[in-house]
TrEMBL record:
Gene3D superfamilies: P-loop containing nucleotide triphosphate hydrolases. Keywords: ATP-binding, Nucleotide-binding, Transport. Residues 262-281 are annotated as: Disordered. GO terms for molecular function: ATP binding; ATP hydrolysis activity. Residues 14-252 form the ABC transporter domain. This is ABC transporter ATP-binding protein. It holds the Pfam family ABC_tran. Residues 265-281 have a biased composition (Basic and acidic residues). It comes from the Bacteria. SUPFAM superfamilies: P-loop containing nucleoside triphosphate hydrolases (SSF52540).
Length: 281
């Protein structure tokens, strides 16, 4: 198993070129290009049905594209034989939209599913130890490991899903709407955890989200899906230079302004906490 160090030394762990995905006559992506940088949290946004989830499924090999190429860690995913992809599959973790855990398994057993799949030789004691460690790592109390998903709150279930995505010590994490359905405080805490794990574990994160607070708070860059393509990718100030109507409406609307204010306030609070005691300036 990897020890959390970066194995991939290249600049772009994900490279997508000329990607076309379609269901019958219905074209979701048309000649889409995107590169994800090592070590970044890339936010992926776009209206409902623009193909964010389909794009994620294509990258992890669950959706066969009609055209184009996808490389992960320099390994071609498109047109690859299953045994060629196996070596990269255990280097990523996934939290699907809705993030369903197996309801008949405890949280620890859920985390063990990918471990058993890739390392069937692992002894029960070690499986137990690793899964409990992952559970605690995501900020859940230790006793959550032996609980069933139905016994957890929504926010705890998201953390358990994250623990399962982290089971194999991935270098790359795919998260599809991980904070959907959480209250703003729960969502902000999840964001904080994600940023912290990304930085300490040296992860690269492909993060699909509708949550403007998340985009402002933790994403290094944001990719915008519209018109069947990634129409822009960059920091939020860079995106604001685009005159594409969807980008302007999304990032300049009242909700975006509120998210920006929240981010500035949080930065100010963090700064004042850094100052030595007694310094009220
Ligand atoms: N298996 C499938 N068969 C047919 N059409 C599909 C399939 N999966 C997705 N689609 C269609 O592809 C389009 C993109 O779907 P996708 O789930 O990627 O959207 P999304 O951007 O993730 O939306 P949301 O923000 O609502 O999650 C949608 O119109 C959807 O109906
Ligand atoms: Mg989706």
């Amino acid at each position: 198993m990897s020890n959390g160090d970066l194995h991939y030394e290249g600049e772009f762990p994900i490279v997508i070129e000329g990607l076309t995905n379609a269901f019958g006559d219905f074209v979701v992506h048309d000649q889409l290009d995107l590169k994800v940088r090592r070590g970044e949290i890339l936010g992926v946004v776009g209206g409902s049905g623009t193909g964010k989830s389909v794009l994620m499924r294509a990258i992890i090999g669950l959706q066969i594209p009609r055209e184009g190429s996808i490389e992960v860690f320099g390994q071609r995913i498109t047109d690859a034989e299953p045994d060629e992809v196996i070596g990269v599959r255990n280097r990523w973790g996934v939290l699907f939209q809705g993030g369903a855990l197996f309801s008949t398994l405890t949280v620890a057993e859920n985390v063990q599913v990918p471990l058993k799949q890739f390392y069937p030789e692992l002894q029960h004691e070690l499986l137990d130890e690793i899964s409990r460690y992952k559970v605690v790592m995501t900020g859940l109390p230790a006793d959550a490991a032996s609980k069933y998903p139905s016994e957890l709150s929504g926010g705890m279930r998201k953390r358990a899903g994250l623990a399962r995505a982290l089971a194999l010590d991935p270098e790359l994490l795919f998260l599809d709407e991980p904070t959907a359905g959480l209250d703003p405080i729960g969502a902000a805490k999840f964001d904080e955890l994600l940023r912290e794990l990304t930085d300490t574990l040296g992860l690269t994160v492909f993060l699909i989200t509708h949550d403007l607070d998340t985009l402002y708070a933790i994403c290094d860059r944001v990719a915008v899906l519209a018109d069947k393509k990634v129409i822009a990718v960059g920091s939020i100030p860079e995106l604001l230079e685009s005159d594409h109507p969807w980008i302007q409406e999304y990032f300049n609307g009242p909700r975006a302004r509120a998210a920006l204010t929240a981010k500035s306030n949080a930065d100010r609070r963090a700064k004042s906490m850094d100052k030595p005691a007694g310094d009220k300036a």
